Fold this sequence. Notes:
By secondary structure, this protein is of the alpha+beta class. It has 3 helices and 8 strands; from the N terminus they run ββαββααββββ. A hairpin with a 2-residue loop joins strand 5 and strand 6. The radius of gyration is 16 Å and the shape is elongated. It starts with a strand and ends with a strand. 28% of the residues are buried. The model has no long low-confidence stretch (mean pLDDT 97).
Amino acid sequence: MKTFRKELTFHVPTRRGIVNITHEVQAAIKESRIQEGLVLVNPMHITASVFINDHESGLHQDYERWLETLAPEKPYSQYAHNGFEDNADAHLKRTVMGREAVCAITQGKLDFGTWEQIFYYEFDGKRDKRVLIKIIGE
């Protein structure tokens, strides 16, 4: 069995944003030369998420609206966590959206359904953040 590790760096210029990282993950798989196995993709920060879904702008807007109803950013004073930082909502949104995605690799490619894509979702942006890609297989 072989392993491969790669980090991606993102700088989302706004507090929140969704970035399609499917092509970067597929490029890492190609670079790894692993043909059959699994790829783990996870943010290395507790205020971001990696998830799989459709690449459709209306759906992305729905995520934003829905998450704001569950954990609104403001007022900052509503959260016990806020004090030194004002990102309690980002921690809660990450909990709802999940931490990572694990995907099958078949014949050197992501083994996805028709509309599936991998996304990085930033909840506390405006600074550099890292995403880990870990691939295992043969």
